[in-house]
Amino acid sequence: MASEKKISDKVGFPPGSLIHIGKRKMEEPKITIIDYQDEQFQEKIAGKVEECFPFRETPTVTWINIDGIHDVKVIEKIGKHFNLHPLLLEDILNTTQRPKLEDFEDYIFTVLKMLYYKEEKDIRIEAEQVSFVLGANFLISFQEREGDVFNSVREGLREGKGSIRKKGADYLAYSLLDAIVDNYFLVLEKIGEKIEFMEEKLVKNPDPKLLRTIHELKREIIFMRRSVWPLREIIGALEKIDSPVVKESTKIYLRDVYDHTIQVIETIETFRDIISGMLDIYLSSINNKMNEIMKVLTIIGTIFIPLTFITGIYGMNFVYMPELGWKFGYFAVLLVMLIILIGMIFYFKKKKWF
Amino acid sequence: MASEKKISDKVGFPPGSLIHIGKRKMEEPKITIIDYQDEQFQEKIAGKVEECFPFRETPTVTWINIDGIHDVKVIEKIGKHFNLHPLLLEDILNTTQRPKLEDFEDYIFTVLKMLYYKEEKDIRIEAEQVSFVLGANFLISFQEREGDVFNSVREGLREGKGSIRKKGADYLAYSLLDAIVDNYFLVLEKIGEKIEFMEEKLVKNPDPKLLRTIHELKREIIFMRRSVWPLREIIGALEKIDSPVVKESTKIYLRDVYDHTIQVIETIETFRDIISGMLDIYLSSINNKMNEIMKVLTIIGTIFIPLTFITGIYGMNFVYMPELGWKFGYFAVLLVMLIILIGMIFYFKKKKWF
Amino acid sequence: MASEKKISDKVGFPPGSLIHIGKRKMEEPKITIIDYQDEQFQEKIAGKVEECFPFRETPTVTWINIDGIHDVKVIEKIGKHFNLHPLLLEDILNTTQRPKLEDFEDYIFTVLKMLYYKEEKDIRIEAEQVSFVLGANFLISFQEREGDVFNSVREGLREGKGSIRKKGADYLAYSLLDAIVDNYFLVLEKIGEKIEFMEEKLVKNPDPKLLRTIHELKREIIFMRRSVWPLREIIGALEKIDSPVVKESTKIYLRDVYDHTIQVIETIETFRDIISGMLDIYLSSINNKMNEIMKVLTIIGTIFIPLTFITGIYGMNFVYMPELGWKFGYFAVLLVMLIILIGMIFYFKKKKWF
Amino acid sequence: MASEKKISDKVGFPPGSLIHIGKRKMEEPKITIIDYQDEQFQEKIAGKVEECFPFRETPTVTWINIDGIHDVKVIEKIGKHFNLHPLLLEDILNTTQRPKLEDFEDYIFTVLKMLYYKEEKDIRIEAEQVSFVLGANFLISFQEREGDVFNSVREGLREGKGSIRKKGADYLAYSLLDAIVDNYFLVLEKIGEKIEFMEEKLVKNPDPKLLRTIHELKREIIFMRRSVWPLREIIGALEKIDSPVVKESTKIYLRDVYDHTIQVIETIETFRDIISGMLDIYLSSINNKMNEIMKVLTIIGTIFIPLTFITGIYGMNFVYMPELGWKFGYFAVLLVMLIILIGMIFYFKKKKWF
Amino acid sequence: MASEKKISDKVGFPPGSLIHIGKRKMEEPKITIIDYQDEQFQEKIAGKVEECFPFRETPTVTWINIDGIHDVKVIEKIGKHFNLHPLLLEDILNTTQRPKLEDFEDYIFTVLKMLYYKEEKDIRIEAEQVSFVLGANFLISFQEREGDVFNSVREGLREGKGSIRKKGADYLAYSLLDAIVDNYFLVLEKIGEKIEFMEEKLVKNPDPKLLRTIHELKREIIFMRRSVWPLREIIGALEKIDSPVVKESTKIYLRDVYDHTIQVIETIETFRDIISGMLDIYLSSINNKMNEIMKVLTIIGTIFIPLTFITGIYGMNFVYMPELGWKFGYFAVLLVMLIILIGMIFYFKKKKWF
In chain D, what residues touch B152 (CB-CB under 8 Å)? Predict the structure, then answer.
């Protein structure tokens, strides 16, 4: 089931060829339709793609969510019925697509990444691609698999909480965007906790394994950065867009998401700074330890090598060595060695090696 | 009392839900009203929120200050009476909010950070969020707890010093902004003193503990930077804003605060440079110390290992070793060893190891 | 055949002199003509340059591809017939030319790089320069040698797949651009695999040879960066160009290639970050190993140097050394040395040196 | 006399309060008036501030120079008579003010820094703040103390050299600006000489004291950078200003100063690069020295430790050790040791350790 | 002859004073006049400055080249006759002038640097300043000494090759610019060769002398960068200038030089990256060598220190040491030591120290 297609599998096909790039993450695509307006609310799972076509014409707001994008035919049918540009379909299928926004007059197309923090053997931030097609009164969302960060929005729709049912498809799109960006804060919170945990460990015991974890954190932060940075531009463009699809009254909400995106980006940059600071601390700690080790060796060596030399002298077998015959020669030598020892210790104290 | 809510506690609520994020820093919100115009001046503490509503209609300038924002109901009532946008109320309640400015035509909303330098076990810069709602003739300020940097402004109002009572709510807002930015200089002054103190210590005695303090300073500077950078944009926008709320004559004062903000930012950047320079010095000092230690070991080893070898030779028990029988063999060996010793010392002198 | 001309060989000629700069990569230039429109399709290899001149006047779309640009006369003849600016011809001949776009009203000229990943003794990214002259209904492409990344486009043309035969020369140019950028992804995929392979090796066994490979990767990434960065600007300009040669309907496709270029650039930047992180890991690993080595030496030295000193004492030949005569003197000394040994081991355990 | 006021002494006062911030550098303020036009020239020292007031009305160009700004009353009186904005007076008094330009329609206000290179115990760049108020036919300059870089301008005025007396107050302002920027070149020249001197020393003998000097140079360069960078913007704005105070014909001169400022900035950036390169060299030199030391220890240890072991063997007191009785046993052992010694030396030669 | 004047020698003179700054590089200024139009061509060396004045009025294109700018009077006379602005003359005389472009309506003034690569004891890039005054039908060029990079242009003019004689003074200026920029490629080629040579050496034998050369390369690259960067702006401005002096048809040529300048800048940046990579490699190589040395010491020490200890035990002179009397005691000890030796070697093999 988890067969993976790389971008290289697509090279060699003419542009416009619809080919799914990425892992296949579920068995069968699942299509969910939510249709609402004020008091009206309907939610159903479509067995076939065709079931969602009639909703296009109704004046109510319709949210069609497709989980699983590996089935090219489903995407093609939707594309045909909703009159979507072939390049757009290509982007939906390519899960390595960079987040982007495209304005096709009748509808707006955007690709985003949902992020999940995983910590098993390694630390890893997993990305799931979500594409939105936002029309005047419909929103189609494409996800790689079941499970997302939109449950609060679904609850709001079902229970009619807040004003969401009274507003249009653009407000729905904003709510989903908001849920995605809010989820970024969750991921960052977990990374933040990990960083704090690492910092404490670093100072106490600079284990070489920490270096690996620092490197992993750094790599995942770089990865997250790539997924989030383009959002700044996307939401900024959305907020300034001149399209019948996005109402003026919705734009103030988009500005709010924009602010949150900036905050996410700033936190990412701060984390980068802190992580590179951690590397410095790690390296200095290692250096300090080395220093300490060398000091011990040097103290031991500096004390005992000269003393051993003295014992060597009186271990020589010369026939004529007057000191050897002295009665207190042995004790005199012991005394001399003691004095040298004490002198050394004072020297080290003065040098602050203890 | 110090219960803390994280941003993750808010995920799962629909957008627009009013939830306080951050630590609860005081028991009960405290509402203070200052009302003035020219000679007129009135200051009172409101027992209930409703007491401050009548001031909205009066032509005098009214400053309503709320200490403690954890009580969502108080914020909601004010929001309702003063006709504030729900997103604005959300931002007031979220103490992790990035500094921002929002122009709602009838009023201007801005979020800022007051900073305090703390040095207990660690060095820490504490932030308290302040939000301002600036209307034509009123200013509402929201703070996390009692105690702020606005006392000089309050004194000015009470005593009618300067021209502040003759000017409008926008000048009051400027005065508060000015007090916040002036306070940044205080924080920077203290960091500057700490840096100077550290620099002296670094050169004299590169203690591994200093590394920790350098890292803390660096982290707090990064933190301060995040709180101050957005101000540049905010005050810049305020100075160029086209709103009935901000008079032209006030803008020259805003330009002055803008200049100060730039100066704060430049000082922060300078401190970052200096701190990273301190890290370099620390590392080199550690390196130097290592060098010195190795030199001692090498000198001792290089002198005594060969000498010990010579004593070893004459400590061998061969039956036939002619030198052993020589009358001055022992003294000759001592002499040879002395010559080697002196030669070594000359060699080290030449190499400048002393 | 592989004679190479450097840019210095051109210095000293007046501007406008046509001189081939670079390696000569094939024997004879090869000219291929593809002419098509809807159902019509013709492909032939021209024996002489003049054979491709008549196609200029036909209303069908003509793609003239020249493999081998070292024959200045061929280039000159084409330049004359198609009325190309001398500076343009100079750029075609100079294979060290930076990617660029030039709008000559009647035609658009662009220089690009095709990249190939080679891994023999070293890792190397090879570049081949391609120049395009795009007219209203013709496209002339100049390559350094046979073999390129355009086979999928040729197949599409031959078999009439997709809509390419129904569209103009500008769509053909887009298809070729798209093939070039798609190929960059292939190169990046291979570099990505190499990086992953290196990362695993780095952690397991930090071999000094890895340092060389890291350096090679870094250098090639820098090289690739230089070839790809200007594309951003080029395709961006092409997408916004106001020229009769590029139809409005083609621009949405160009925007798609633009997005891919951005993605290529971002991946390159990410790789740079990761590679410099690898260098840090390598250096720390080396440092760790050093540490470990020093620890072994220190442990051995610290244990045995004092013990050897004790044996030295009782190896002295003083006449009067009372301990020597004791019955259990020898065993007492052995016991003392054992106690010292155990003490040392405990000390090292406490210091976590094991 | 050298009492110093910090910016923190001002916090707590309402905005607009006139307080001197900085060191008091001289006893009494000194006011000098230079008045000229074509052939006319008059220079006098004013005993009281009021003496310079009448010059405001005359059609001649008047330059009022105030040395010493700690006397708030003097500044206040001038401010009142010349109708200067209170914020401007605040900036004049605050010697930590960032260089700035403010256009008040009737007059232009600018704050700059004069820099002096000092080398006593440390290297230090001292800054003195100069503020200019440029009106239609007067220029008021405020300095912290007597002594400046304007003597060449004064000479020019006194002797009527060049065309300065024929031009207006704006040309006078340009001349002073030019003198300030020219003086930056002097400071840079001295820093450049210091850098050259350091580079030579670094290669010859990497003394730990050099590290300190490198750090000082770096810090002072950072300091200088902060004083000079804003000038770029200031002179750029001055050159493009639309004000009756600056004539068109003067702007070409301002463009020239602008160019010089850019050159100063570039030199500063180059110096930063070179200084950080010096740090690298220093660290590598230290590393090299360490290497050399370790090599000596290793060579000595590697040669003598095994040899000492051999002597140890024949120093054992076993009753039955056949070699001891051999006639040439002693010489054989000496020979073996010699062979080992020579072998070692060859090994080291091969490893290029000599 | 090689007297040098520094910028500090000029400080103290009023602005507009004409003073030569830099080294005097030749005896007497030499003035060469080339006058041409279509078939007409004349070249002569002027004995006196005045000889070139009549050419100003002729309709033919005149190129006046002055080698040697230390003679202020010559420059002054030309300035007077051609009506040049005094600031321009100042810039010509100041050889530390940053490259710049100034449009004086009737003529355009530009300052550039010709660069020469020198490798004697050190690597050095020498700069010679060239200034151009481009009028409607004349071009005056000022150089510091005889010898330049314009010979190909002179040949073209003499022999009437290409179209240069048919075009105006602006095309002549372009040709000279092109020659200067082409020459930068030559310098870069030589630096590139040096870098390649260094890289090979670095891997084979990281000699401390290489560090010095790396530093020199870095410094010269920084120097070259400063001379070339401003060109980007200058040629960019020239290409967009709206002046009667530069014809529209010449601008496409200028765009070509612009492209080359960008390429030069990019190559410089790439070289910077590679050189800083070389420093990393150098440091790691040094580190590796250190490691290797330490390994040898550790192996020798770890093997022989314990063995020597054993010999020490049996070298003690206790009266009662049972092993000493055993018949095979000596051989048993030798065997034990052999076993320890083999064990150690196995241990090192396992640790991959061989």
Answer: 11-14
| Residue A344's CATH number | 1.20.58.340
Instruction: Name chain E's partners: 3 or more CB pairs within 8 A.
Output: C, D
How big is the A-C interface in CB pairs under 8 Å?
A: 149
Q: Are residues D340 and D218 in the same domain?
A: no
* Out of C161, C297, C320, closest to residue A330 by CB: C320
Which of B219, B297, B319 best probes binding to A when mutated, by most A CB atoms within 10 angstroms?
A: B297
Identity of the amino acid at C318: F
Burial (CB count within 10 angstroms: exposed 0-12, middle 13-18, buried 19+), residue C51: middle
If asked whether residues A40 and A187 sit together in one domain, one would say yes
Please indicate, yes or no, whether residues D251 and D280 belong to a single structural domain of this protein: yes
Q: Are B332 and B256 in a shared domain?
A: no
Contact C308, E305 (CB under 8 A): yes
Q: For Cα atoms C160, C161, C165, give the angle at the middle one, nearest 5 degrees.
A: 45
Which residues from chain C sit within 8 angstroms of residue E354, using beta carbons? none
Task: Say yes or no: C207 and C335 in one domain.
Answer: no
Q: Nearest by CB to C312, which of A90, A102, A311?
A: A311
- Same structural domain for residues B56 and B18? yes
| Minimum CA–CA partner of D13 in chain B | B152
Burial A297-319, CB ≥16 within 10 A → b, else e: bbbbbbbbbbbbbbbbbbbbbbe
Chain C residues lying within 8 Å of A301, measured CB to CB: 301, 305
Return the exposure string of B214-249: e unless at least 16 CB atoms fall within 10 Å of the residue's CB, then b. Answer: bbbbbbbbbbbbbbbbbbeebbbbbbeeebebbeee
Task: For residues E128 and E85, state if they share a domain.
Answer: yes
CB–CB of C319 and A325 under 8 A?
yes
Q: Which pLDDT value is given to residue C36?
A: 93
| Nearest-CB residue to D14 (from B175, B252, B319) | B175
> Are C279 and C321 part of one and the same domain?
no
Q: Choose the closest CB to A317 out of B223, B226, B324.
A: B324
Range of the domain at D344: 292-350
Domain boundary among E285, E300, E319: E285
Substitution target in C298, C333, C340 with the highest count of A β-carbons within 10 Å is: C298
What is the tally of structural domains in chain C?
A: 2
CATH code for the domain in which residue D36 is found: 3.30.460.20
Q: Distance (Å, rounded) from C-alpha E134 to C-alpha A274?
A: 55
Q: Coil, strand, or helix at residue E100?
A: strand
Among E285, E301, E316, the domain-final residue is: E285
Question: In this complex, which of B10, B215, B289 lies closest to A277 when CB atoms are compared?
Answer: B215
Chains touching A (at least 3 CB pairs under 8 A) are B, C
B-chain CB neighbours of A174 within 8 Å are 15
Would you give per-residue pLDDT tens digits along chain A (354 residues)? 345 777 777 766 766 678 888 887 777 889 999 999 988 899 999 888 888 888 888 889 999 999 988 888 999 999 999 999 988 999 999 998 999 999 998 999 999 999 999 888 788 899 999 999 999 999 999 999 888 899 989 998 998 877 888 999 999 999 999 999 999 999 999 999 999 888 888 877 777 788 888 888 998 999 999 999 999 999 999 999 999 999 998 998 999 999 999 999 999 999 998 998 888 888 888 878 888 888 888 888 888 888 988 888 888 888 888 888 888 888 888 899 899 999 988 888 887 776
pLDDT of residue D2: 44
Q: Which chains touch B (3 or more CB pairs under 8 A)?
A: A, D
ipTM for the predicted complex: 0.81
Mutate to test the interface with E, among D317, D324, D333, D347 (most CBs of E within 10 A): D317
Q: What does the alpha-carbon distance between residue A323 and residue C20 come to, in Å, rounded to a whole number? A: 91
Tokens of D94: 């605050």
